[in-house]
């Protein structure tokens, strides 16, 4: 297996590290995979996508929500940081839960509420749950792609606009047109404590090669990324007021087969990393979050890291240090019905990346 790594010693300065990589690439003979600190309990049938919720008041109570895609008994499983299922808060009996994402501070009836939003694929709906109790606040589900014959929602990501704190949900589907593949909805809370959704725009290109599932949003920089599988990673503005022009396509030629799960590791200065699953190679390709020095939309691969997951589909990452996870937590799905938890420090040291 060919891994691209930094040619120098562990780089403390991020820009110096990248300059070295651009000058020369070395094929590593180290083919050992990073081992997770935690492997979760198994879900009922088919693990798919995780999302991390951080309890800012008591970080040890933070949790990971993972989807199970079973057609009749699918679910949203809640795991503690030790990977144990919280049966009281997990929600089962759902119809093929595909992807999930989290937003903090949606205004509902004059209160701020954290939410988890997921696609219930076989009901052509999105589901919304209040955090941390996982109480449904969507009146049983909100239909999406209503007037379209191509439905089956899969990918999902939440965008919170910094200027006015509005929360939007961006949804992808199993198949769709070459233009306007994604739908974006504005979420609004009402006086009954429920959430409604209003369609704001349709946007995003599709190559037609396979499907689009993984979507990730960078709230602070204002971008949305999605995996057009076997084609590349596409980049747009997350704010609908900034238009529908495609900003970049990157990662082409970097994958054995499918480019899949996307997660974004963020530093406070606007730099960081975009991690994308090279599913069939059991590795994650890593790109600069901020682009290059001269072009914020120039995302050339920095390196790759081999992990212990099998055929990883979805992932999530946070740069917030949590108990047992120095430098942050990276979570990736594996096909053995589990999710694997890694410390950011272990990934950064393996790949020659910045730790904090």
TrEMBL record:
First and last residue of the signal peptide: none
SUPFAM superfamilies linked: Thermostable phytase (3-phytase)
Record protein name field: 3-phytase
GO function term, MF aspect, one: inositol hexakisphosphate 3-phosphatase activity
Source organism of this protein record: Sediminibacterium goheungense
Top-level lineage group: Bacteria
BPP domain segment(s): 24-351
Coiled coil: none
């Amino acid at each position: 297996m060919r891994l691209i790594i930094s040619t120098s010693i562990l780089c403390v300065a991020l820009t110096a590290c990248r300059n070295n990589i651009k000058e020369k690439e070395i094929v590593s003979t180290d083919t050992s995979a990073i081992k997770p600190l935690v492997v979760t309990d198994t879900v009922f049938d088919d693990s798919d996508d995780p999302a991390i919720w951080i309890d800012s008041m008591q970080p040890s109570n933070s949790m990971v929500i993972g989807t199970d895609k079973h057609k009749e008994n699918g679910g949203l499983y809640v795991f503690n940081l030790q990977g144990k299922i919280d049966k009281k808060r997990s929600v089962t009996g759902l119809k093929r839960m595909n992807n999930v994402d989290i937003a903090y501070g949606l205004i509902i009836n004059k209160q701020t509420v954290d939410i988890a939003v997921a696609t219930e694929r076989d009901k052509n709906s999105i589901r919304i749950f209040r955090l941390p109790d996982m109480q449904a606040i969507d009146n049983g589900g909100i239909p999406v792609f209503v007037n379209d014959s191509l439905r089956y929602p899969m990918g999902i990501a939440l965008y919170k606009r910094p200027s006015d704190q509005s929360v939007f949900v961006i949804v992808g589907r199993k198949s769709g047109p070459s233009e306007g593949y994604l739908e974006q909805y504005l979420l609004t809370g009402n006086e009954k404590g429920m959430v409604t959704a209003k369609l704001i725009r349709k946007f995003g290109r599709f190559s037609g090669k396979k499907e689009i599932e993984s979507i990730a949003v960078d709230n602070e920089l204002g971008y949305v990324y999605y995996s057009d599988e076997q084609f590349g990673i596409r980049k747009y503005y997350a704010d609908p007021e900034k238009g529908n022009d495609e900003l970049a396509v990157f990662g082409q030629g970097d994958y054995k087969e499918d480019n899949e799960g996307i997660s974004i590791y963020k530093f406070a200065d606007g730099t960081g990393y975009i991690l994308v699953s090279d599913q069939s190679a059991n590795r994650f390709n890593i790109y600069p979050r901020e682009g290059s020095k001269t072009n914020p939309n120039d995302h050339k691969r920095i390196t790759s890291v081999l992990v212990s997951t099998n055929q990883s589909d979805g992932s999530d990452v946070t740069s917030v240090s949590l108990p047992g996870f120095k430098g942050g937590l990276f979570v990736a799905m594996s096909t053995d019905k589990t999710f694997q938890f890694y410390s950011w420090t272990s990934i950064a040291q393996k790949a020659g990346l910045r730790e904090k």
